[in-house]
């Protein structure tokens, strides 16, 4: 199985900050990566897929990049509604999928 | 609008089985695969498996092989996930989620809480 490791597991940031979350795969996944946002008590929401393609309706302050085994999610200017937990997920080995452990973004 | 509506919360005893339903609306049911994902309290997301609503074929995570069964009813646009031999570690919120082609999951159900307790 492909393992996905996210870092950091949590971070504190202020409104307006630039935030970067990293996801590392245990083997190359050829940009087969999605990012999700989850707020407490809610289902996850798809933000990006194919490592950098923004899902419809997602604000442009969210962006993704990377290649091979290393990928990043960047929030260019953190907004109050962005405080949540973020997960990466690989689909290179589809139909078998794996998620990263999550990164909780908290208010500083 | 595209929507997935799941069945209500369940409380089960260890060793029992649970069957969770997920009713799709607002799109062609047989055109999109459906995933099942679970989340234990305070933990991350765990992929359980996927079903093709068109032909009924399935693929399960190795961890759940032999304990999980995913089925569908095309007449009601509903998929089901049954998990057997429940143990306390199966206490979690279970989600169905529509597959966005092979790219991930673009529509999610509201989640079904399953509690396993004696």
Explain this structure to me?
The complex is a heterodimer of chains A (108) and B (118). With 108 residues, chain A is mainly β. Chain A is built from no helices and 11 strands. The mean pLDDT of chain A is 96. With 118 residues, chain B is an all-beta fold. In chain B, strand 4 and strand 5 form a beta hairpin. Chain B is globular. The model of chain B has no long low-confidence stretch (mean pLDDT 97). The interface between A and B is medium-sized, with 23 and 23 residues.
**Helix percentage range of chain A:** under 10%
- Helix fraction bin of chain B: under 10%
Q: What general outline of chain A do the C-alpha atoms trace?
A: globular
Mean pLDDT value of chain B: 97
- Please outline the major beta sheet of chain A: 7 strands, mixed
Task: Detail the poorly predicted runs of chain B.
Answer: none
Number of strands of chain B: 11
Instruction: State the order of secondary-structure elements of chain A, H for helix, E for strand.
Output: EEEEEEEEEEE
Structural class of chain B: mainly beta
Oligomer: heterodimer
Poorly predicted residue ranges of chain A: none
The helix count of chain B comes to: 0
Summarize the biggest pleated sheet of chain B: 7 strands, mixed
Radius of gyration of chain B: 13 Å
Strand content of chain A: over 45%
